[in-house]
């Protein structure tokens, strides 16, 4: 059976959450399913970190790339003999398609917080996601929270949606990091211990302005614990959109020597920086999932997340929470509570966190996707 896949989401250099999900799912499908044949459609030649082309796994580059899902991809699909199903590892399915479409919807933040997106992106996300959902034979999403959002906003039947949790590379985050390795990585970014860490794209819904303002009132933390002397806030991740206020706020609050922006963090540096942090903070207003949170849980770093969307589903009782309305006051209170947990409570949560992290496994994710592809093919 021949199955097509739009893999453009995986074919990028600096991968963030959605790119990582697409890349890992591709690898799992290529390794787990050798009964079916796969035609992988791309706008550009496949990057070196994608699965190699072999007998059951082939790539096809379609040019030109503009309005690619609207006309170029559909044209190729109608000319592909024996195609039985098509998987979009993105919100945007082909406008027209001769076989059942399975679409991946990672989150619906653009519907919940439209003011936090660029207008051009918002129009595209809203319109193209809507037609993709309506034309899909089945939908994949990455949490029960996102599934509930799809049911609520689009009136879909729950049985038409499958939750496929993302995973992590457990070996990378559970193995020990030597002090020398940690120091080397920290020095590279101008970081000195102790520090608080956020890792993710810089965009409004990540609620980083509230985090920075909360951190600016850290004096009482320094007075109450000697091991927090010189505390820094590390904000790691590439620039997304509407991020300039973050840098302006840091400058206005005279925190340039205390708030470190690392930019995009290479995968090799992520485990060390997570393990070295006093606290991993994810203050987002909305998350479809949140892979860095699971990475921190696996690494044994205490986590503090906003009590919303999928974050409570992931963390459960294994971390601390920022309560609504998620302003600077609540973020600051969350930081204080997380840093001053009684040792027995902290130890218990860290054990729970490591155990919970093992529930998220890429191999299991891949198996579930293959099952869906086989079930909903012609």
TrEMBL record:
<dbReference type="GO" id="GO:0016757">
    <property type="term" value="F:glycosyltransferase activity"/>
</dbReference>
<dbReference type="GO" id="GO:0009103">
    <property type="term" value="P:lipopolysaccharide biosynthetic process"/>
</dbReference>
<protein>
    <submittedName>
        <fullName>Glycosyl transferase group 1</fullName>
    </submittedName>
</protein>
<feature type="domain" description="Glycosyltransferase subfamily 4-like N-terminal">
    <location>
        <begin position="94"/>
        <end position="172"/>
    </location>
</feature>
<dbReference type="Pfam" id="PF13439">
    <property type="entry name" value="Glyco_transf_4"/>
</dbReference>
<keyword id="KW-0808">Transferase</keyword>
<dbReference type="Pfam" id="PF00534">
    <property type="entry name" value="Glycos_transf_1"/>
</dbReference>
<dbReference type="InterPro" id="IPR001296">
    <property type="entry name" value="Glyco_trans_1"/>
</dbReference>
<dbReference type="InterPro" id="IPR028098">
    <property type="entry name" value="Glyco_trans_4-like_N"/>
</dbReference>
<feature type="domain" description="Glycosyl transferase family 1">
    <location>
        <begin position="193"/>
        <end position="345"/>
    </location>
</feature>
């Amino acid at each position: 059976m021949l199955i097509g896949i739009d893999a453009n989401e995986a074919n990028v250099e600096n991968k963030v959450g959605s790119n990582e999900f697409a890349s890992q799912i591709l690898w799992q499908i290529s390794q787990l399913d050798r009964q079916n044949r796969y035609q992988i459609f791309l706008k550009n030649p496949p990057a070196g970190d994608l699965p190699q082309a072999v007998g059951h796994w082939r790539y096809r580059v379609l040019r030109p790339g503009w309005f690619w899902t609207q006309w170029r991809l559909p044209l190729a699909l109608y000319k592909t003999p024996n195609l039985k199903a098509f998987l979009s590892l993105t919100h945007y399915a082909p406008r027209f398609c001769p076989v059942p479409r399975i679409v991946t919807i990672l989150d619906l933040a653009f519907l919940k917080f439209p003011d936090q997106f660029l207008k051009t992106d918002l129009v595209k996300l809203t319109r193209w996601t809507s037609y993709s959902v309506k034309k899909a034979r089945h939908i994949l999403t990455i949490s029960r929270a996102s599934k509930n959002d799809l049911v609520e906003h689009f009136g879909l039947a729950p049985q038409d949606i499958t939750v496929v949790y993302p995973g992590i590379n457990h070996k990378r985050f559970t193995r020990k990091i030597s002090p020398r390795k940690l120091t080397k990585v920290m020095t590279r970014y101008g970081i000195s211990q102790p520090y608080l860490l956020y890792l993710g794209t810089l965009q409004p819904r990540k609620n980083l302005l509230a985090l920075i303002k909360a951190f600016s009132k850290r004096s009482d933390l320094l007075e109450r614990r000697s091991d927090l002397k010189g505390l820094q806030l590390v904000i790691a991740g590439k620039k997304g959109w509407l991020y300039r206020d973050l840098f302006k706020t840091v400058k206005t609050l005279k925190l340039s020597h205390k708030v470190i922006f690392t930019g995009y963090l290479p995968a090799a540096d992520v485990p060390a920086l997570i393990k070295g942090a006093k606290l991993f903070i994810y203050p987002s207003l909305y998350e479809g999932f949140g892979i860095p949170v699971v990475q921190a849980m696996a690494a044994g770093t205490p986590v503090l997340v906003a009590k919303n969307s999928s974050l409570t589903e992931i963390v459960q009782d294994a971390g601390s929470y920022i309560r609504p309305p998620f302003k600077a006051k609540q973020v600051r209170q969350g930081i204080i509570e997380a840093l001053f947990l009684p040792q027995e409570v902290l130890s218990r949560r860290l054990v729970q966190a490591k155990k919970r992290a093992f529930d998220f496994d890429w191999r299991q994710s891949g198996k579930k996707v293959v099952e869906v592809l086989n079930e909903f093919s012609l």
